[in-house]
Design a protein that fits this description.
Elements (H helix, E strand, L loop, with lengths): L4 E6 H11 L1 H20 L6 E6 L2 E2 L4 E2 L8 E9 L4 H65 L7 H36 L5 E6 L14 H11 L1 H23 L4 E8 L8 E8 L8 H44 L5 H17 L5 H36 L7
Parallel strand pairs: 1-6
Antiparallel strand pairs: 2-5, 3-4, 5-7, 7-8
């Protein structure tokens, strides 16, 4: 594998790179611009139609394309007059489609932002755990190396050395699994930031978010934020509006449009140089757009049901998300602030005492295993608390808990 470049990365830097480089966002922005262009198209009126006729061959004179007094020439100019405010209704539909495209962009941003922040903090806390594995593996490597130096001299039994090596191999295997998990998160982060595959990030996290209280805001306030800011809920409302606008437009299409025209015919009428005006329209006997109108009516009911489902989904997701955040906060507040620091001190003392043969191998290995498990659980708990708050931001479409 080629060597990786290690880059220190703050969350704000990551978000800026994400907004600048992410191709999914860029593609969706192009889609928004393309949809906006359709509003221009919807405002346009039909073009007039001009038709010109020239006599090709006169059998009496035997001449082609005569333009003298014997030749036939005719012209007609027509214009379609759109009735029932169809153009206004087309513009309404185009504007709602544009808003749907915008909401889709915001929903993509909301979803990817959670993925970005989740990966960032997950890498950070897993790297903190990896430090503990590194320290423990290095300590056991020193012990194994020391044992090998005195092997066969009666200072250390073969059984004791095997136990230490077994613990070392177990730790190395667990450490490799942890590194694989970190690499998976790194891969996800690189995809979000659209950077090269050989960049290794070292997150510099402001862990102040872990001290934020999820009960800072009431459930009512959090729900109000979700109702106001959730882009997926806005999309459900826009789809409902779009179905109503489509129904109005389909009813308008049942009203025939008018075609007005003027015509001139040099030789082909009952008099020479004939001039006329014309008025035309379809007679709605067979096709009154019945099927499309019925389809639009059903889509109103369909989108209304989806809107109700979206509203109930928001209620349940926010309630459950707040529950998870409260549970994670309760576990976090139950941690002794001196817990991690005291374990670091105890670990160093335990190593020294074991090397001096003041404690038994069993006590030493049991302590280190407990030390490792507690650090793993501590970092997992801290990540869960941070992610629970980030999830509330996601569920409300806001930055209620932002650090």
């Amino acid at each position: 594998m080629p060597a990786s470049d290690t880059v220190r990365l703050e969350l704000r830097q990551a978000e800026q790179l994400f907004l600048t480089n992410n191709l999914q966002i860029l593609a969706q922005k192009y889609n928004v611009d393309a949809t906006k262009a359709l509003i221009i198209q919807a405002r346009l009126y039909p073009n007039p139609n001009f038709n010109l006729e020239q006599g090709a061959y006169d059998r009496e004179t035997g001449k082609w394309f005569e333009t003298n007094s014997h030749g036939e020439e005719a012209a007609q100019l027509t214009q379609l007059i759109v009735l029932s405010r169809k153009i206004k209704k087309q513009v309404d539909i185009a504007e709602t489609n544009y808003k749907l495209a915008e909401d889709s962009l915001y929903d993509l941003l909301r979803t990817l932002k959670l993925a970005l922040r989740g990966a960032f903090y997950n890498i950070y806390y897993q790297q903190q755990t990896a430090k503990v594995y590194n320290e423990e593996i290095n300590a056991l490597n020193k012990i194994v190396a020391a044992y090998k130096e005195v092997q066969g001299k009666g200072f250390v039994s073969q059984a004791e050395m095997v136990q230490v090596q077994a613990q070392l191999y177990s730790l190395q295997n667990e450490y490799q699994v942890l590194v694989d998990n970190i690499n998976d998160e790194e891969s996800q982060l690189r995809l979000l930031l659209q950077v090269g595959p050989y960049t290794y990030y070292k997150p510099v996290a402001d862990t102040g978010i872990v001290n934020m209280d999820p009960l800072t805001y009431s459930l009512r306030a959090i729900l109000d934020s979700a109702y106001t800011n959730r882009s997926d809920l806005a999309m459900a409302k826009d789809n409902m509006l779009l179905s109503q606008q489509t129904y109005n437009y389909q009813k308008a299409l049942a009203v025939p449009d008018l075609t007005l025209g003027v015509a001139y015919d040099k030789q082909g009428s009952y008099v020479q140089n004939f001039n006329a005006v014309s008025l035309g329209f379809d007679i709605p006997i067979f096709n009154r757009n019945q099927g499309n109108i019925k389809n639009a009516q059903i889509l109103i009911k369909y989108n209304n049901a989806n809107l109700q489902l979206a509203q109930k989904t928001v209620d349940e997701q926010v309630f459950r998300g707040l529950q998870k955040a409260i549970d994670a906060d309760r576990l976090y507040k139950g941690i002794d602030p001196a817990f991690a620091g005291s374990f670091d001190t105890l670990a160093r003392n335990m190593m020294e005492n074991y090397m001096k043969r003041n404690v038994s191998l069993l006590t030493f290995l049991t302590f280190y295993d407990s030390y490792k498990q507690n650090i793993v659980q501590l970092n997992t708990l801290l990540y869960n608390k941070v992610y629970a708050l980030e999830n509330i931001n996601f569920l409300t479409g806001s930055n209620l808990f932002d650090k």
